[in-house]
TrEMBL record:
PANTHER family, per the entry: HYDROLASE, PUTATIVE (AFU_ORTHOLOGUE AFUA_2G14860)-RELATED, MONOACYLGLYCEROL LIPASE
Domain AB hydrolase-1: from-to ranges: 274-394
GO CC terms, sorted: membrane
Signal sequence, renumbered to the chain: none
Protein name: Alpha/beta hydrolase
Source organism (scientific name): Azospirillum palustre
Alphabetized GO MF terms: hydrolase activity
Classification of source organism: Bacteria, Pseudomonadati, Pseudomonadota, Alphaproteobacteria, Rhodospirillales
InterPro entries from the UniProt entry: AB_hydrolase_1, AB_hydrolase_fold, AB_hydrolase_sf
Keywords: Hydrolase
A Pfam family this chain is assigned to: Abhydrolase_1
Cell division in keyword set: no
Domain of life, per lineage: Bacteria
């Protein structure tokens, strides 16, 4: 399996996927195949090469890297290649990525030859002006179905004749591989549409082969061309670690290798570390307001749980203790001897368990809305909250994920479709709901494991064992806010239990309420007395 890695440029980050062993080969994947899938496919076919496949600018983990023309996009690719130490290696580009590869040598980074693969396919798309339909997020989620149809049809149909299936070409992708490409394209769907348009239009330019440029049709010709070139070349060096931006307050992405798996991180700030644990079932992306709010005084590190978001997806049984052990392994991998914790919902339980079992490592802990609901309610949730979510050949899972996420804002619990279960929080804008849905889709069929763990955990027994300073809180819109009253009766003396003005990671919270809530967290974590909510739970 390919391994993801980030490289930090001056104003953005790009992500690459590395697979195989041997000398370096830099790859610009097709606009219809995920870089991760491309890296593994090439490494299997070319065992003598180390394949480094780039998430193209504007897609996947490279979404923040963007330019409005092919030359600018090529400069970003060359900058990433240089910073990764990929000097003088061959450059391979598939179909619509050909214009990007052809523009790279003019940037100053010189590959050892450019191999363009399946350009006839891209020329066919250009000839009939194939473009995605508008991909701006819609309130009903159908833009995801439109994107899926575009990607699938590009694989299935003749490039020059959309009325017939293509009889030749690479094997059709499995649903999980097509899903990987959709998730890469849908990080910023409008930007993906713009990338497609730039490359498509550039295909209509000069098609004559440039110096050092070769072409191949299909993987067999790629192997025939590249296999003899591996002999005598130096083996690839390890990729350098990802770096923060010069501005310490900017959020940057990183990975940490632990004995339990590779964990994706969002990081910002400097100073005493704070590990921030997400709710389930998506990624830590909704915690960005927390990172922005607290990074001025400390380093905030928000991991995706193993099994969730962009972290590894190990096959294993999951409970809160397992997730807490994962986070302890993360702290060890990052060299954190002492640190503070912040967690919400499932994350509150992970923080609680870690604090109770390893108090010697923890300074202070903010536990937002730990799960404290009746046992029969937990049992009902475990029975109905977690339908299977798996990639489907026609993309049916996309609307399932969208409507699950949307209904979580409409009802509590989301599957209880009745007036009495209506919530007051409001459905967020389509762009926000899109991001939340993408986090769920990133977790895939593993999405429910950490989620289920929260409703199986014995929160009450753990709370009474707290020995470190803790703040238990919840905003008024939180569906678990009623648990504060019980938390007040269970928490040891000295634990602060109080409502907060907002749940900062919920969309639609007032700016003033968010600032006041961030101030509550900061004051508690700094050990300042008397600075939390003046109206605590009685």
């Amino acid at each position: 399996m390919s391994t993801p890695h980030y490289v930090t440029l001056a104003d953005s980050q790009m992500r690459v996927w590395r697979s195989g062993s041997g000398p370096d080969l830099l790859v610009l994947p097709s606009l219809i195949e995920a870089a991760s899938v491309c890296a593994d496919r090439l490494a299997n076919a070319l065992p003598g090469w180390t394949v480094t496949a780039l998430d193209l600018p504007g897609t996947g983990g490279s979404v923040t890297s963007w330019a409005d023309d092919v030359a600018g996009l090529a400069r970003l690719i060359a900058d990433a290649a240089g910073r990764l130490g990929l000097a003088g290696c061959p450059l391979l580009a598939f179909d619509l990525a050909a214009p990007l590869a052809r523009a790279v040598p003019a940037t100053g980074w010189q590959p050892d030859g450019v191999l363009l693969v399946d350009t006839a396919i891209a020329e066919g798309w250009s000839e009939r002006d194939l473009r995605p339909a508008p991909l701006t997020p819609r309130a009903d989620g159908t833009h995801l179905a439109v994107l899926w149809a575009h990607l699938r049809d590009a694989h299935v149909l003749e490039p020059r004749d959309a009325s017939h299936p293509a009889r030749n070409g690479a094997p059709l992708p499995a649903p999980r591989d097509l899903d990987a490409m959709l998730r890469s394209a849908a990080v910023a769907p409008d930007r993906y549409g713009a990338l497609w348009a730039l490359c498509l239009d550039a295909m209509r330019g000069d098609t004559r082969a440039a110096a050092g440029e070769s072409r191949a049709d299909g993987l067999a010709e790629v192997v025939k061309h590249l296999a003899p070139m591996a002999a005598g070349r130096k083996a690839a060096a390890p990729l350098p670690p990802a770096r923060p931006f010069a501005d310490p307050l900017r959020v940057w992405h990183d990975y940490a290798d632990t004995p339990r798996g590779r964990i994706h991180l969002r990081r910002a700030g400097r100073g005493r570390p704070l590990l921030a644990f997400q709710s389930a079932p998506g990624s830590s992306a909704p915690l960005l307001p927390l990172l922005h709010g607290l990074a001025a005084e400390r380093e905030v590190i928000a991991p995706d749980y193993l099994g969730n978001g962009e972290s590894d997806k190990p096959e294993r049984a999951v409970d809160i203790g397992v997730l807490a052990d994962d986070m302890l392994a993360l702290a060890d991998a990052l060299g954190l001897d002492g640190f503070d914790l912040w967690g919400t919902h499932t994350g509150a339980l992970v923080a609680l368990d870690l604090t109770v079992r390893h108090p010697e490592r923890i300074g202070r802990a903010v536990l937002e809305a730990p799960v404290l609901i009746p046992a029969d309610f937990s049992a009902d949730i475990l029975d109905h909250y977690f339908p299977p979510l798996a990639a489907d050949r026609w993309g049916l899972h996309l609307l399932q994920a969208w409507n699950m996420r949307r209904d979580m804002f409409l009802f509590w619990p989301w599957y209880r479709q009745e007036r009495a279960a209506a919530r007051d929080i409001g459905v967020p804008a389509a762009t926000v709901l899109h991001d939340w849905t993408m986090g769920l889709l990133a977790s895939g069929s593993h999405y429910d494991r950490s989620y289920r763990a929260a409703f199986r955990y014995d929160t009450r027994t753990a709370l009474v064992r707290l020995t470190r300073p803790a703040l238990i809180c919840a905003g008024p819109a939180d569906m678990l806010v009623e648990g504060l009253a019980e938390a007040k009766t269970l928490a040891p003396a000295g634990t602060e239990v109080t409502p907060t003005p907002a749940t900062v990671w919920y969309p639609g919270q007032g700016a003033q309420a968010v600032r006041e809530t961030i101030d509550c967290y900061a004051a508690f974590l700094a050990g300042k007395p008397g600075t939390t909510n003046p109206h605590p739970v009685s």
